[in-house]
Amino acid sequence: MMSKETTALMDPETQSYRLPRIVVPEKYEITLEPDLVNFTFAGEETIHVIVSDSTDHILMNALELEIQEATISNSRNENFKADITLDTENERVKLSFGKSLSSGSWKLHLKFTGILNDKLHGFYRSTYKDAEGQTKVIATTQFEATDARRAFPCWDEPDFKAVYKVTLIVDETLTAISNAKIKKEIMIPERAKKQVLFHDTMKMSTYLVAFIVGEFEATPVIDADGTPVRVWAPPGKLHLAKFAEGIAQHSLTFFNSYYGLKYPGDKLELIAIPDFAFGAMENLGAVTFRETALLVDEKTASHAELERVADVVAHEIAHMWFGDLATMKWWNGIWLNEAFATFMEMLAVDSWKPEWKRWESFGVSRAQAFATDGLKSTRTIEFPVRRPEEAQGMFDILTYEKGASVLRMLEQFLGPEVFRRGISFYLAKHKYSNTETNDLWDAIEESSKQPVRDMMDSWIFQEGHPLVSVELDKSGKALTFKQQRFLYASADDSGRGKDTLFHVPIMVKVKSGKSVLSEKFLLTEETHTLNFEDKVQYVVVNEGGHGFYRVRYSPDLLRALTMKREETLNAIERFNLVNDTWAAVLAGLQPLSEYLEMIKSFEDETDKNVWTVIAGSLQYLDRVTCGSPALKDFTKSLCSPAFKRLGWELKDGEDNLKRQLRGLLALVLGTTGDDEKVQAEARELYAKYKADKASVGSDVVPALVTILAHTGAVERYQEFENDYKNASSPQEEDRFMYSLTAFQDKELLKQTLEKTLNGSFRTQNAPFVVRMVLQNSAARDVAWPFVKENWQRIIKTFPEVSLPRMSEGVTGLVSDELLKETRQFFKDNPIRQGKKLIEQNLEKQSVAVALKNREAKTLKTF
Ligand code: BES
Ligand code: ZN
Fold first, then answer.
1. Nearest residue CA, atom 7 of ligand 1?
2. Which residues line ligand 1 (CB under 6 A)?
3. Are strands 23-35 and 163-171 parallel, antiparallel or unpaired?
4. Contacts for 700-705 with beta carbons within 8 Å, 24 or more apart?
5. Cβ atoms 200, 284 nearer than 8 A
6. Distance (Å, rounded) from C-alpha 146 to C-alpha 113?
7. In the chain, what is the greatest distance between 2 CA atoms, to the nearest angstrom?
8. What's the gap between Cα 374 and its chain centre?
9. For residue 33, what are the β-bridge partners?
10. Helices (DSSP H) in 746-815: which residue ranges?
11. Which of 175, 512, 555, 839 is 20 to 30 A removed from 801 (C-alpha atoms)?
């Protein structure tokens, strides 16, 4: 297969934003002095460069910087001053020396200034109020994908790896953190400042460089398999760091052994930042986090909140090798980074807390990937990237969740140890350098001696995924498998990719005669038949549930399976069965009534993840019908028995999945089902909780808060708003903030929306608040008008990267008119980043509208 990277470089359109390779950096010596009062910074850098071909100019990246001076010199005493021309459109600067630079080593010296912006990218400011109510400022960085150029002029592409020697000049009372250990601090008493000099980093990409300056407190250093580790937080929050410290220590140790290579940094610091666009960022040795992803109160947090912290910490630490040590050549390969870190995050968390059954709940992420990948507007996992804003759009569900799913599929097919050896071999071979996707398959092939590349190419370079149908022939002894691309939109109106074939690793469990057999084979053609000696009693396709494909059983096979469900299917297989059937309904392949019949038979289901799919489909129908009474009745009769079995009270010896299930069922009954009894009990229980926080299980509390908001009026709104302001942990803060999106009173919802623009909510959260309100079916008349009317304010205020994620809210606007409107709106107001995501969300909206029209009758009666 032709390398996408080569094509991109040859493309004349690309050349204006890709840097030429005649001059290459080897080492940056950077000194920065942030001014936390005026929100500016001054910088100076000496870059050791190699000129490979004589040239009279240098092109490098710079954005929103003022460059005062640029000179270049070499050891032969040649010394030139440059004319500086900024090219804002292409985010770069041209340094013209007027003379030709001979090939060899040079030192480029630059002086520049910039602003500490409030857009959560580049070198930016984050603020918080201290215990006395004083506003404090932090200066911090977020460079991925292409924002190092906002902090210092550089070769801001991932394969210009270099060494960084960082110096920060800061107020003497402040903490300064960067990627490497501090080498030396020099006091500057006359300015009440200090100069903090850091050790050289390893050779790495610009997007991994980090500077963090502010008032911070740290946990005592602990040892993780030889590496010093600590957690930093703004003052007063360190008591929330213990949990993250635990998973950090475990992950680092786990990865040292899994990867078979020692952690490449000289220390590892995890830092909580009050304003942060993403969840976390894997800067080598100085990983930054949004507070909810790092700081947590183990005693009061719900399982989901704890799992989130464990996931994010493990994920970022996985990147220290996969991403930081071996890095993709260009952003088309970002999937490799992120899919891998997501996959490894599961492995590490699973090994830390096996009782969490992390791979089972991963089914929920896989289901999200399916939901996007079944659209016509999906994309290939590896996707061409040209402009910087296109790079940003790649951080999506397909990169993370689909990517991780296909890696899991491969791992299970090859066997975990064979797979691990391949990864270890790949890292050893490519450390400190850059790779393309093929390098990974080649390494796994070499170590496993299996045709990995062909198989994986069909998943990475083709859109979508297959639907595998299975049928039993008349003799009852032959099973025929048939693959066909799965699409929500009916195949005839798309016509596209119908004949796409995948290399599907199929694992099946078959009961033939008296024996139960497991078989595996690679389905590369359209069909394949397996023959058995005895009659087939039942077959489970996608045994173990790790395959990234949907399954459709012929009616007789489906009956045989569901009849003996508990005996034949494990939790994740039951999850897939429900999820695939629901997908068939959305695709119009199966009537809604059949799905409803099927889930009725799941009344006695006990698994939390299976219930998560069921609940998800009910919430979906709630948006489609705008909360129809028939749906409420259906929800009540389906979920009540299961909830009654659990009760509100925690039981001794109950595992955490049961506890989560209790919260989930209460939530669905109290909101989607509008079960008045559950709502009244929730109010009572919440009053008890307020008096004694230990009196209610922590997995039930989030449900209580949402139910109370759902049924609440202005007093409750004020109460929760207050609780938001006085929250005792980041999770509680989020919980009460998002509760303000769940009320049904339009005036209250308007207030919530206004808070996203008037500074009441941090801009890191504002887009997600808008998204939640858009998906609240009671908010239809206020949320979309708000977005339309305030669009200019929104794009000025919210972090640009989060706008596409906000657009996900449109999937809640299920009507023909709104569909037309949203389409027109995004046509008239295109977003620079994440165009694909907008397209996908609009298509999801249209899939929902199609369901509404097609199933009008069933939706009235249930
Ligand atoms: N490298 C990303 C952070 C990032 C995301 C940078 C998008 C630039 C654009 C980081 O490793 C990451 O993936 N963070 C996730 C959390 C993770 C546990 C899935 C995030 O921020 O959502
Ligand atoms: Zn990541």
1. 395
2. 144-145, 278-282, 311-312, 315-316, 319, 338, 341-342, 395, 400
3. parallel
4. 700/648, 700/659, 700/662, 700/663, 700/666, 701/300, 701/302, 701/663, 701/735, 702/302, 702/304, 702/663, 702/667, 702/735, 703/663, 703/664, 703/666, 703/667, 703/670, 704/666, 705/735, 705/736, 705/739
5. no
6. 18
7. 93
8. 19
9. 42
10. 746-755, 766-774, 780-789, 791-797, 803-806
11. 175
DSSP state of 705: H
Q: Where are the alpha helices (DSSP H) in 119-199?
A: none
Closest CA to 619 of 670, 661, 655: 670
- How many whole angstroms separate alpha carbon 725 and alpha carbon 702? 17
Helix ranges restricted to H, 436-586: 437-448, 452-460, 491-494, 555-563, 565-568, 571-586
Provide the token pair at 819.
């569909």
CA distances from 172 to 58, 566, 640 (A): 37, 65, 61
Closest listed ligand to the CA of 313 = 1
* 675, containing H or E segment: none
Please compute the mean of the pLDDT values over residues 134-159 and round it to a whole number.
97
For residue 341, how far is its CA from the centre of ligand 1 (angstroms)? 10
**According to DSSP H, which parts of 671-745 are helical?**
676-691, 701-710, 714-725, 730-739
What is d(CA 323, CA 316) in angstroms, rounded to the nearest whole number?
10
Q: Which atom of ligand 1 is nearest to the CA of 279?
A: 21
CA 550 to chain centre: 23
Q: Look at strands 175-178 and 40-51 and give their pairing.
A: unpaired
Q: Which two tokens stand for residue 309?
A: 């912290």
Q: Determine contact, residues 401/366, Cβ cutoff 8 Å.
A: yes
Residue 117: Cβ within 10 Å count? 15
Strand ranges inside 261-367, DSSP E: 268-273, 280-281, 286-290, 327-328
Q: Is the pLDDT of residue 686 over 60?
A: yes
Q: Give the pLDDT confidence of 600-639 residue by residue, as tens digits.
A: 999 899 999 999 999 999 999 999 999 999 999 999 999 9
Residue type for position 203: K
Q: Tell me which residue has tokens 């009916």.
A: 490
- Among all bound ligands, the one having the nearest atom to the CA of 768 is 1
Give the span between the Cα atoms of 642 and 188, in whole angstroms: 67
Beta-bridge mates of residue 517: 510
Query: Quick one: pLDDT at residue 497?
Result: 59
Using alpha carbons, select from 500, 506, 436 the residue that is nearest to residue 470.
506
Q: Percent helix, strand, coil in the chain (nearest 5)?
A: 45, 25, 30
Centroid of ligand 1 to alpha carbon of 280 (angstroms): 5
Contact 360, 606 (CB under 8 A): no
Model pTM score: 0.96
**Size of the chain, expressed as the number of residues it contains:** 862
